[in-house]
Structures are given as structure tokens and as C-alpha cells.
Amino acid sequence: MGIAERKGRERAERQQRITAAAREIAEREGWSAVTIRRLADTIEYSQPVLYAHFANRDAIVAAVAIAGFRDLAAALRDGAKEAEDRQQAIEAVAATYLAFARAQPALYEAMFTLPTDLHFADSETRPELRDAFAALSAAVAPSNTEPGVATETFWATLHGLAALERSGRIRDSARRERLALVVAWAFAS
Amino acid sequence: MGIAERKGRERAERQQRITAAAREIAEREGWSAVTIRRLADTIEYSQPVLYAHFANRDAIVAAVAIAGFRDLAAALRDGAKEAEDRQQAIEAVAATYLAFARAQPALYEAMFTLPTDLHFADSETRPELRDAFAALSAAVAPSNTEPGVATETFWATLHGLAALERSGRIRDSARRERLALVVAWAFAS
DNA sequence: ATGAATATCTAGCGTTGCTAGATTGTCAAC
DNA sequence: GTTGACAATCTAGCAACGCTAGATATTCAT
After folding, report:
1. In A, which residues are within 8 Å of B116 by CB distance?
2. B interface test, pick of A185, A187, A189 with most B CB neighbours within 10 Å
3. B163 vs A147, A163, A172: nearest CB
4. Which end of chain A has fewer CB atoms at under 10 Å, N or C?
5. How many contacts does A have with B, using Cβ atoms within 8 A?
6. pLDDT of res. A105
7. What is the CATH number of domain B68-188?
């Protein structure tokens, strides 16, 4: 009965190719260039095949976003692992977060701007999202196990900085100084 | 020569009706429901008429956004005018900002999420945007006339909170506590 | 009243997300 | 092996989108 397994593998691989193509095109040309026809072309299947994998276009964006949260959580943990004290951990996490958003703007956009149906503070929160939140929380409030007002506010600041920097509404030249200020704020709380 | 004046008035009024309709529909059904056909129907003209007023759909969204910045600046000034000290001013501004975003989510979305070509920290920044920034700055750093790292970071925090609250990624129940924390941060800097 | 200029509309192009129905391929039963 | 059912895949098309060219109606100076 290896046939069913093979089909399952092929299906998973095709699904992977769809999200990879979406992410790549979005990063190169923006999410508006990610059309079903374009994706179908890229994976060399007809359009209806995509609907055997995802309910609609938004579901593809959401899949990319969830993969992004996995990446972000990993990056945050990796960035913080060499910190020697709380302040260093906060600084590492903040810098990593902003670098992540900056390096992959389309991915970040999928994670935070595009879909409205990926909730966080909710019973049905995806584990990937919880995990990224936990990585932040570990740096800000290592001793605290409650949901974390400080972590939420810290995250909001980072997200706000990422968003406003991206849209050119705060000076690119002051990035370093803002980072220092954020670290001071989070450290003090 | 009252004829030209009348035509000018009619034109301005029609333009006003377009943006008002866009804002209303967006607030009720989301920006994706704001189509050229729908707007044309609402103002009882054919579609090409809209293009005599705006270059394209994005320009309509941008017009709504700019009006939103006027409203926001006024709301911030109004909210802060009765504050007796710096801390009260910061708190008033923060609360007003978040209430503004919460009360008119589609408008706020137009201002911060949708268009990419309304720059801030830039020589060609629209005065409406500068003015809103100045209203924030007056509360955070009343004595400081420089562009304001603190103001930028404060703004970023408020925007992040607005965005994450809206998408349900931070707990609605902790709004008060986050506000208090933000005020403490901004006050300390 | 008439002709030019302006304002407005009808009709349509190309593209989008998505889907029904036809077509091809696969595999077990005889 | 052949056949028939089932699954996989494609072709073709719908309705709605932003936007525009060309036809028509309206307005105004002469």
C-alpha cells in the first residue's frame, strides 16, 4: 500500500510548492501579483488544482503567514540565546524582530496586515502564533507566566515600528535611537 | 460670471460626496466593498465621472485617509487641551488615539494600512500628516522641537496597539492596563 | 438659432477569483 | 487482458473588478 503514501507525499509537496511560489512572488512583486493563474502557471497545473489544496486565495496567504510565524519564533529564540542578561535579551529580540520584518516585508505583511481571521488572544489561536508570542515573552518577562501586559505592549511597539518604518512614516535615520528607547522602556517595566 | 463658481461648487460637492460615500461604505462593509461601480451608483453618476475627480481608486482611498488625518489631529488636540500636566496630556492623547482607531476602523485602515504612497518623514509630506504628528509631539515632548525619537516611538506603540487590538491578537480585556503602561513609558522618556 | 466646447454616458477591454462539466488517467474485478 | 468505476485534472466560462475609448447629450458664446 505504498501508493496512497506516494500520493500523500505528492500532494504535500505540491502544497509546499504553492506556498513557496506565493511567498516568492509576493516578496519580489508584491501580494497583488500573487494571482491564482500565476501560481497555477508556476507549479505547472491548472487553476482548479489549487482549490483542491486551499479553499481560496486568502487561505494561501494565511498558510504563508503561519509558516512565517514559525520562522519568526525560531529567529527570535536564536537571536536571544546568547544574551547574558535580561537587557541583552530584550535588545536582541527587538533587533531580530525588526530585522525580520525589514528583510521580508511581504511575508510580514501576510502575517500582520492582510488576513483578519488569524486571532491571537483567543481559544482557537494557532500554536505557531502562541509560540512566537512566547519567544517574545521569554525575553521581556522571563519570570512571569501570565499572558503578559508588558509583552503585549512590547510586541505592539515592535509591530508599530515595523509598520511605520515600512511605510516611510518615521525617519529611517533614527532606527538605532528608537531601538535603544524601546529597550529602555521594556527593561524598565 | 457666477456660472464658473457654481460649476466649481458643484464639482467640489460631488467630490465630497464621493469620499463620503467611500468612507461610509468602507466603515459598514469593508474597503473591498468600495468599488467604482458602487460609488458611481451611490452618487448617481456613471463610472467615468469618478475619474474626472480622482486618478484611480487608490486616490479616493488616499483622499479619505487625508481627511482622516485632519480629524485625528483635531481629536488629539481636543483631547489634550484640558490636561493639567505632562502625564495627563500623554494619557489623554494615547486614549484619544486608540479610541479614534477603534471607533472608525476602516478610516484608520485607510490612513495606515492601505496606501503605500503617503509618506511622513519626507520632504513632500502632506501637511495633514505633519499636523497630526505635531499634536502627538506636543504631548510627549512639549519642550523639544526636534523631529522626536520619543514621539516616533510613542506613535509606533499606539499604532501597534491599534493594529493588534483590531486584529484580535492582544486581549481586549487588558486594554486599560496596556494604556497605563504606555503612558508610564512615554512619561519616563 | 447655430456651432464649438464641455459634460456625461454607453459599451467594452483585459484581468481577477472561482466553478461546473467534460476529459483524461488509474486501478480493481472479472 | 478487458472493462467499468472512480479519482485526478483540464477546458471553458461566469460575474465582478478597474479603467477607458468613442458616442451622445448638454451648455454656452456668437
Report:
1. 167
2. A185
3. A163
4. N
5. 123
6. 98
7. 1.10.357.10
Chain B nearest C-alpha distance from A115 (Å): 9
A71 CA, D7 C1': Å apart: 36
- Asked if A163 and B169 come within 8 Å (Cβ–Cβ), the reply is no
Query: What would the pLDDT profile of A30-64 be if each residue is shown by its tens digit?
Result: 999 999 999 999 999 999 999 999 999 999 999 99
* CA neighbor of A70 nearest in space, from A7, A156, A135, A121: A135
A106-137 confidence digits (pLDDT tens): 999 999 998 777 766 666 788 999 999 999 99
The gap from C-alpha B162 to its chain's centroid, in whole angstroms, comes to 12
In angstroms, rounded to a whole number, what is the distance separating the alpha carbons of residues A87 and A139? 8
Q: Which residues contact B140 (CB under 8 A, 6 or more apart)?
A: B90, B93, B148, B150, B151, B154, B186, B189
Q: Look up residue B39 and give its DSSP letter.
A: H
Separation of B69 CA and C28 C1' (Å): 69
**CATH value of A1-54 in 1.10.10.60, 2.30.110.10, 3.30.160.20, 3.30.70.100:** 1.10.10.60
Candidate from B116, B157, B172 with C-beta closest to A156: B157
Task: Describe the crossing of helices B86-103 and B175-188 by its angle, rounded to 10 degrees.
Answer: 140
Q: Where in chain B is the domain with CATH 1.10.10.60?
A: 1-54
Exposed, middle or buried, B166 (CB in 10 Å: 0-12/13-18/19+)?
A: middle
The pLDDT confidence band at residue A143, using thresholds 50, 70 and 90, is low
Among A58, A116, A167, most B C-beta atoms within 10 A, so best to mutate, is A167
Cα(B43)–Cα(B10) distance, integer angstroms: 12
pLDDT reported for residue A117: 75
Amino acid identity for residue B10 in this structure: E
Mean pLDDT over the full length of chain B: 92
